[in-house]
Amino acid sequence: MEQLQAQSREKKTGNAVKVLRNEGWVPGIMYGSEVGNKPIQVKGRELDAALRQQSTNKPFRLSVDGNTHDVMVYELQRHPLQGNILHADFKKINMNEKIHTSVPVLMTGDPELGVATLVRHSVEVTCLPGNIPESFLVDVDGFNIGDVVLVGDLTVPPGVELGLDSTEVLISVLPVKAKSEESIDAEQEAEAVAEKAGTANE
């Protein structure tokens, strides 16, 4: 479990928050029945590093002013262009109580024929925080057109309950889409224009 250092902060807005971010901090909130809504701040570089080590659907250990809390990242707000984290919400959890969360579905390998398409990008699970899978990795190597992967085909760790019916489709292998007549016409027109331009420049 990744550990993050945080500090309490006064709830600020406007220029004060901008100054905080310019100094490398990410403003955030830790909330829960035991802590209420507690404004905090974490170093952006440390938060980024922790998120590279494990996904946001896994529990983190958050140390705030010397007190340690088990938390989940509930929401991250990122800059729409730069992608840096602007704000983070942490929910305090009990490691001995089951929670509901989503686990991403990832693919590896290449089908023999067709294109593998994710029908669902994640699966809802219920389990203890320490048992949350990082992801469900599905190998589609050698699959053919018409092959599917169902929820029931997943390898599920002990203690993890899936929130979907076992017959729901997660991955489907489809034929490669043929180019439409419009796209073919557009390509031919572009080639003709380029050919005329080349002739004119000779």
Name of the CATH homologous superfamily of the largest domain: Ribosomal Protein L25, Chain P
SS class? alpha+beta
What overall geometry do the principal axes of the alpha carbons give? Answer: flat
How many DSSP helices? Answer: 3
- Tell me the series of helices and strands, N- to C-terminal: EHEEHEEEEEEEEEEH
Q: Which stretches of 5+ consecutive residues score pLDDT under 50? A: none
Organism: Brevibacillus brevis (strain 47 / JCM 6285 / NBRC 100599)
Subunit structure: Part of the 50S ribosomal subunit; part of the 5S rRNA/L5/L18/L25 subcomplex. Contacts the 5S rRNA. Binds to the 5S rRNA independently of L5 and L18.
Family: Belongs to the bacterial ribosomal protein bL25 family. CTC subfamily.
GO molecular function: 5S rRNA binding; structural constituent of ribosome
Description:
The protein has 202 residues and is an alpha+beta fold. It folds into 2 domains: 90 residues, Ribosomal Protein L25, Chain P (Beta Barrel); 76 residues, Ribosomal protein L25, C-terminal domain (RNA Polymerase Alpha Subunit, Chain A, domain 2), CATH 2.170.120.20. The protein has 3 helices and 13 strands. The strands form 3 sheets. A 6-stranded mixed beta barrel has the order 1-3-2-6-5-4. The longest helix is centred in the C-terminal third of the chain and has 20 residues.
